[in-house]
Amino acid sequence: MKLLGRQTWKFGDEVYLNSTGTAAGPMESEGPLGAMFDVKYNDLHCNEKNWELAERRLMEDSIESCLKKAKLKNEDINFFLAGDLLNQVVTANYAARTNEIPFLGVFGACSTSMESLAVGAALVDGGYAKRVVAAVSSHNATAERQFRYPTEYGGQKPDTATFTVTGAGAALVSSEPSSIKITAATIGKVKDFGIKDPFDMGSAMAPAAADTIAAHLKETGNDPDYYDLIVTGDLSAVGAPIVKMLLSERGVDISKNHRDCGLMVYRPDQEVFAGGSGCACSAVVTYGHLVKELQSGHLKRILVVATGALLNPTMIQQKESIPTIAHGVVLESTKGGHN
Amino acid sequence: MSNKEQQQAYAEKIKPLQPKPPYFMNCLKAFLVGGFICIIGEALQKFYMTYFNFNEQTAGNPTAATLILISALLTGIGVYDKIGQFGGAGSAVPVTGFANAVTSAALEHKSEGIVLGIATNLFKLAGAVIVFGAVSAYIFGMIRYAFKILM
């Protein structure tokens, strides 16, 4: 049985993360992880005519560099699992039109990064695919326009707001051995504690992250310190202390090894309010930075919990609150004979 | 899904962990930025009265037009949203804020074409201001008219 408890998948010995590719916008490239990204743009337009094309360019760049590193072509890939934040996941759809890899669109807001990776790993583990590419993207300007106001609108944002990361990340999953193994994944439940403020997604998403982390630890029987790091996607400066508090109420202490991608992707002096968010936030940090730490053996084992606010502007205007979700994936380094 | 009590308990619990909005500083910044925009308006009005053939009543029109032009240009070069983040209501309430709402929507929807993009979405944000402006002008006009007849 590959199912642990109710919601955790335990993968066999043959699921590997072979290669990753990342593309990033100007703010992210200037951030502390800037040197880790494969493709960097110093202009938010990424040499394209409009924002949507810019986001598509980022996703296509990340896939291209991921496959280039693995010395593979589009024809070598069985399935392409991708998603983004835009209506009808358009960025993913049009990237799939370009690469012509059999395609499954996925949406879990900012949790799509780990959702696509988990499903991809399950396909490989189940023998339904030899090689899968999982990709996500987000763009600050396309997200602003879809979820909030026009880019140049002069509305004041509170300190709890987050800043959508401009970038994309792609990962190649296969049964061919590499230095990183995907060993488990926990699929999250939708949680909603009544937060209605789209400028405070950290508070909205923290309960979903806490629920997924607690379920994962319970079902795998692992302690929090079994992992070198437990990384959340985009809880930011507001949500990060809340998830630690919610877990400590359940007797789980992650304060020593918890990090949040939203706080890792930018420098504290960059003007991003509470921190980064968006599908690309967890993707560029995981696929750009954490994967390198695992490849080198600096990190042995990490749990990446990507958090998503399933926000819809129409629902918010109809006075609904924001449902949220979080999916976790365990990545292990095969360096150093760790079990 | 969580019930009302759980939601209230959660809101109470996370309150100490959330940054408090700096109300006083926001008011001060809004006062300074809004006041500064009004000083520019005042100077423009004096300019039009001194150097052109306008009086105190008629100088309002070219003054507002000039402020709108400046605001639109600042929106276009990507400065007004930064002023807005600093000044809050101070830069949103004057006519420059209205101009920013219209121009930013136009810029945003340029990619969908002139008719369905720019023209359709031009008043996406500012439309509410026009609707309530017209409705309240009508109501207050009627009240004033009623008083005039009765007095």
Automatic annotation (TrEMBL), chain A:
InterPro entries found in the cross-reference section: SpoVAD, SpoVAD_sf, Thiolase-like
Superkingdom of source: Bacteria
One matching Pfam family: SpoVAD
NCBIfam families according to UniProt: PRK08304.1, PRK12404.1, spore_V_AD
Annotated protein name in UniProt: Stage V sporulation protein AD
The species this protein was found in: Fictibacillus terranigra
Upper taxonomic lineage: Bacteria, Bacillati, Bacillota, Bacilli, Bacillales
Gene expressing this chain: spoVAD
Automatic annotation (TrEMBL), chain B:
Source species: Fictibacillus terranigra
Source domain of life: Bacteria
Keyword Membrane: yes
The UniProt record lists the keyword Transmembrane: yes
Protein's recorded name: Stage V sporulation protein AC
Ranges that cross the membrane: 23-44, 64-80, 125-147
Keywords: Membrane, Transmembrane, Transmembrane helix
Pfam families xrefs: SpoVAC_SpoVAEB
